[in-house]
Design goal:
The protein is an alpha/beta fold and 214 residues long. It has a single domain, classed as 2-Layer Sandwich (BirA Bifunctional Protein, domain 2). 24% of the residues lie in helices and 29% in strands. The chain has 4 helices and 11 strands; from the N terminus they run βαβββββααβββββα. The longest helix has 17 residues. The chain is globular and about 45 Å long. The two termini are 12 Å apart.
Length: 214
Amino acid sequence: MGRSPGTIIRTLGRSDYEATWHAMQGFTDARTPQARDEIWLTEHPPVYTLGLAGRSEHLLRANGIPVVKVDRGGQITYHGPGQLVAYLMLDLRRLQLGVRDMVRRIEAGVITWLGADAIDAYGKPSAPGIYVRRDGAEAKIAALGLRVRNGCTYHGVAVNIDMDLSPFADIDPCGYPGLRVTQLADFGVRRSVADAGAALAPILAERLASGGGR
């Protein structure tokens, strides 16, 4: 107990949001206690997603980008080209992790990865995600939302790499009016989504696979 038999990392390239979401549901429903955990790396065409408790008033104005009501926690966020999305299909029972501990480990993995590029990031217990200071103000660089079904997770973390951030101006990001968002490119760090995923995924896998005994 307490250690995964090895996490599979899959690179999906650019994928349709709803098709990928339903694939995560199907994977989770079909998995057995022996199934290996998986991390799926992807980026999506422009889409807003609204979590289970999401309130429509956090979409400030329609702009032609589709809105999808989904089964993760959290409010509204935006996915689009240039953003890395890491979906985390993990067996919490086998890892002996609670949801809060898992969230902290995901955040710590992203923080460690950003630190390699001298980006000083941090998490906030009251508002899951990863934050940085830019031009003297707080900004969110990665959003996090999960669903737990039968003791296993899906959905995951979205990290802004090098993208058009303007669609965030038409929402209250993660339900917080006025929350600023930023990305790696704003710090002079140029990475493709594929390169970012190849570097981040092993860090997340190591952080999470250590389980409750760490």
